Amino acid sequence: MSLHSKHFALPYLREETLPSTFCSGCGAGEVTNALIRAVKDLGHADLSKFSFVSGIGCSSWITSPYFRADTLHTTHGRAIAFATGLKLANPDLKVIVISGDGDLAAIGGNHLIHAARRNIDMVVICVNNYIYGMTGGQVGPTTFTGDRTSTSPYGNPERPFDLARLVAAAGANYVARWTTAHPVQAARAIRTAIEKKGFSFVEMISQCPTAYGRRTGTGSPEEMIAWFKKYPVRKKDEPVEQRIPTRDGLDLGVFADRNEIEFIDSMRAIYRNLEA
Ligand code: SF4
């Protein structure tokens, strides 16, 4: 049996870079599988039509150096800014940003909400593990209130962002949230995000047993997966009401699915009017 016939993702990966450097039990592998499953289901035999952009952090290593594709590994918090330039320079490219909650929602938070507001055609996959994993387990913008981290040893006094609701409210055409315990739904959501014109955001809740599970007592990868499976799934077309996320209260599913005009189309419409 050839190596490629062993796993559907292998033809899309640089085998010489494997095995990955992720900790044992990290959710990054499941996010990789969901993304490659979506690309494969869309009929892409390779990644030549895609460019992947990431920031800094563990999940920023999902695509670079492992994907057999053009990848841009950029500075902390600036992945969407780089991706915006890339898309404007070559609108035919399928641009996918993949990065973590700290990179995208704290350091890069302004880029995230303004890209959603512009509704620029790209996919952003946010791997949300509730903490800064790579840099030592510091409190982040999605860490739950009361969680003990390396920078909140007595408990986090802040309230977390609900990223799916934030990006939906900012104007993205498509927003969904799934977890590493929902691989089929996650792959379907990423597939929809790739097909959708405009800004698409898929929040992937992912286990970080090393920094989050160990420090907060949420446990091993198996225990975290069991926890994620208990999250409620939203009903189709359920109203998106504001709420502060809690460990038990994070809902999954689709938060926005609309077809508002995309940024580059909007620019082209204005230039056409100027020329007329
Ligand atoms: S620190 Fe956490 S997020 Fe980073 S590779 Fe390890 S388990 Fe994964």
Amino-to-carboxy terminus distance:
62 Å
Mean pLDDT across every amino acid position = 95
Under the CATH scheme, which architecture would be assigned?
A: 3-Layer(aba) Sandwich
> What's the CATH class label?
Alpha Beta
Quickly describe the structure.
The protein is of the alpha/beta class and 276 residues long. 34% of the residues lie in helices and 15% in strands. The chain has helices spanning 28-41, 79-89, 101-107, 109-118, 163-170, 183-195, 209-216, 221-229, 263-275; strands at 50-54, 70-73, 94-100, 122-128, 174-179, 199-205, 253-257.
Describe this structure as you would to a colleague.
This protein is α/β, with parallel strands linked by helices and 276 residues long. It has one domain (23-232, 241-275): Thiamin diphosphate (ThDP)-binding fold, Pyr/PP domains (Rossmann fold, 3-Layer(aba) Sandwich). It has helices at residues 28-41, 79-89, 101-107, 109-118, 163-170, 183-195, 209-216, 221-229, 263-275; strands at residues 50-54, 70-73, 94-100, 122-128, 174-179, 199-205, 253-257. A seven-stranded mixed beta sheet has the order 2-1-3-4-6-5-7, with helices on both faces. Helix 6 (183-195) links the parallel strand 5 and strand 6 (199-205). The longest helix has 14 residues, at 28-41. The radius of gyration is 18 Å and the shape is globular. Bound molecules: iron/sulfur cluster (SF4). Iron/sulfur cluster is lined by residues 22-23, 26, 28, 58, 129, 133-134, 208-211.
